[in-house]
Amino acid sequence: MTAQESAPYAAPTPLKKIRTVHLAEFKKNGQHFSMLTAYDQHMAEIFDAAGIETILIGDSAANNVMGYDTTLPITVDEMIVFAKSVAAGAKHSFLVCDLPFGSYEVSPQQAVETSIRIMKETGVHAVKIECDERQTDTVAAIAAAGIPVLAHIGFTPQAEHSLGGYRVQGRGEEAAAKLVKTAKMLEAAGSFCILLEMVPAEVAKKVDEAVTVPTIGIGAGNGTTGQVLVWQDMLGLRTGRLPKFVKQYAQLRPIIEEAAKAYKADVASGAFPAPEHNFD
């Protein structure tokens, strides 16, 4: 086939920039969407190129990047650094940034001020807060400021000490009904999406059916509109016992370790740098 006879070049279909209206359409149309955490430019670029609709800059950076045992120590300043890095790499995904512990609980005004700072300084598209029915005024205040807010209910890691550790929430008829009621209250307050963590699958499904906004699950079955995983869990970077809800789609840790060993061996033997790596 000559150049003239070859098929014309077909440009790849550009990825659509995801916004809250698209997430709402997923819910309306019975479609599912994906969310992964990211904390740096390169992982954000990869997930963005893969078509991951939403990326969470989670306060989980505290125990997945910074080495803390819990999410509690991470600060607003640190979250801003991570969020700016992700925003530099992701051009299509919808970006959500966690409000860290201590940055929104004092008052709705504190929550709005923190949210405004994060939105102005990072380039993300929404904020997330861990809450229950007591934070409806906070959600309403953030939404009234023109900032999309995602309400995180069920197990909320920032409250792990008051919840008695990592425990499934919403078990039993009374607890399940309370979770549904809370979700409806947060929707009415202005939350554009509800995230449910470590909730029985049937309860999460009831929540999704009770609200008109999309829902995102982590350890909450497949009855939610979206699903989220921490990327280090999903790609096999973390060691030790994994939560029951994690599915690993790759094992990167041994690959990285072997590459590091090979590099070390080449340096020790003098094989690296080789002549092709040198300047004349």
From TrEMBL:
Highest taxon, organism lineage: Bacteria
Principal subcellular localization: cytoplasm
Entry keyword set: Cytoplasm, Magnesium, Metal-binding, Methyltransferase, Pantothenate biosynthesis, Transferase
Any one GO molecular-function label of the UniProt entry: methyltransferase activity
Cofactor: Mg(2+)
Subcellular location: Cytoplasm
Active-site residue numbers: E197 (proton acceptor)
Listed GO biological process terms: methylation; pantothenate biosynthetic process
This protein's pathway: Cofactor biosynthesis; (R)-pantothenate biosynthesis; (R)-pantoate from 3-methyl-2-oxobutanoate: step 1/2
GO cellular component, one term: cytoplasm
The reaction(s) this protein catalyses: (6R)-5,10-methylene-5,6,7,8-tetrahydrofolate + 3-methyl-2-oxobutanoate + H2O = 2-dehydropantoate + (6S)-5,6,7,8-tetrahydrofolate
Cofactor note text: Binds 1 Mg(2+) ion per subunit.
Functional description taken from the UniProt entry: Catalyzes the reversible reaction in which hydroxymethyl group from 5,10-methylenetetrahydrofolate is transferred onto alpha-ketoisovalerate to form ketopantoate.
Similarity annotation: Belongs to the PanB family.
PANTHER family the UniProt entry points to: 3-METHYL-2-OXOBUTANOATE HYDROXYMETHYLTRANSFERASE
NCBIfam families hit by this protein: panB, PRK00311.1
Oligomeric and partner information: Homodecamer; pentamer of dimers.
Protein name: 3-methyl-2-oxobutanoate hydroxymethyltransferase
Gene, per the UniProt record: panB
